[in-house]
Amino acid sequence: MNGKNTQHVDEAPIVLEARGITKQFPGVLANDRVDLTLRKGEILALLGENGAGKSTLMNILYGLYRPDAGEVWIKGEKVTLHSPGDAIARGIGMVHQHFQLVPVMTVAENVILGAEVTKAGGYIDKRNANKRVRELSERYGLEIDPTIEVDDLPVGLQQRVEIIKALYRHADILILDEPTAVLTPQESNELFRIMHDLTEKGVSIIFITHKLKEVLAVADRIVVLRGGRSVGAASPAESTEASLAELMVGRKVILQVDKEEAHPGKKILEIKDLEVLDDRKQLVVKGLSLEVHAGEILGVAGVQGNGQREFVEALTGLRSIVSGSIEIAGEDSTHFTPRRITELDVAHIPEDREKHGLVMPYTIADNMVLNRYYRKPFSNNAVMNRQAIADNGTELVEKFDVRTPSIYTHAGNLSGGNKQKVIVAREFSRPVKLLIANQPTRGIDVGSIEFIHNQIVAQRDAGVAVLLVSAELDEILSLADRVAVMFDGHIVKTLPIEEATRERVGLLMAGSEA
Q1: What is the DSSP-derived secondary structure letter of residue 373?
Q2: Which of 246, 291, 425, 427 has its CA 20 to 30 A from that of 437?
Q3: Is this structure's pTM higher than 0.90?
């Protein structure tokens, strides 16, 4: 938990201030007179639903956007930031959720990229670069070998490289955007230690996350945005996950999934010795076997990048299989197309909703029938029945609480949570025997998470076999009846939920025996 002297932080000088920041995009008021202050040595958590304005505000503070109105002050001076270069020059560094690293380069080469150490003749001085990076990493408790290629590092250490990169450019204000999204619990705890060590040395941190438990553990102060406005500040000592969720959403949110004990039935999905290649023709699913029964949720836990994406794409017909077999409801579907798999009453919530879940230029109504448009009542002798498609869209928008001005709104204009609801509505509005849900709540807010979790449990209770693949360990532990841990393309262990503690699963996710 956070053991810092909050009173001392409260008395520290202000190093970054946003005053009345307003930013408008076509049809959207992203920031509406937002105020924010950050003090020296403080960890400030920034919370808000999707579309609340967090990313816009951070992009303004990092020089990626210019505000329409308002002021930015850094260390007592009013500034105009024309680019990230201006922000970096004034001591602001940003660590993005998706790392900005070159895999085939070493740690030191990534750190100095764009700010190279050179010697006579203009050559890069690798020895000096390695020395400076090693000294910097040791000074801030970020120990790492500067000569290792980034591709060989686990994600927790890759994140260290991103932080070192910012510190190398003399950043004393860090913006961390969803920094634990791809970390194991142990790696997250190590990141929190690093954050506290940094603030002890005078670095100030803005911490953006959807994980309320982390906010309460690590933050000195919390600011909540809703609808583009700042709706309040809170102290972790006086807050709970429930109170923060209510402040974010504007209503009470039930954070604990309410579900009865599972009553598994017959085997619906059986996978034997599955092997699958990634896009680089490397074997990433290596002899994987598991089974899922009707009326249960099997959760596949694992750090992103251990073959989960390729595994799910193979199950759903989106990727070819090297060897092994897949049976769905007793039928061999090993080499079936996506349509044939769908017609086995398989529902799929894909990891990338924009690439595999929706057609962005299509209307909501059309997206609701992507997997049934060729069937009655939506089509008759290859002629589309537009009225039936519209009636279906209207019914599902209401039933699944999709927030949209019209069923004719293009899917690309929806927020992340509403895009996900369109997919859930489409997949759950027909008979389903097997639900494959891959990262079903990634990047969406607590209100939408609550809704989607309840829908998944309702499917299980209706006798559907659910395969849930998620890098969010809390999601796995709250929804699953059994937990299979995936590491390096293998299922290393399957546990009943009663034996699946955070610590044990976290160790298995990192490749350790537990």
Answers
A1: T
A2: 246
A3: no
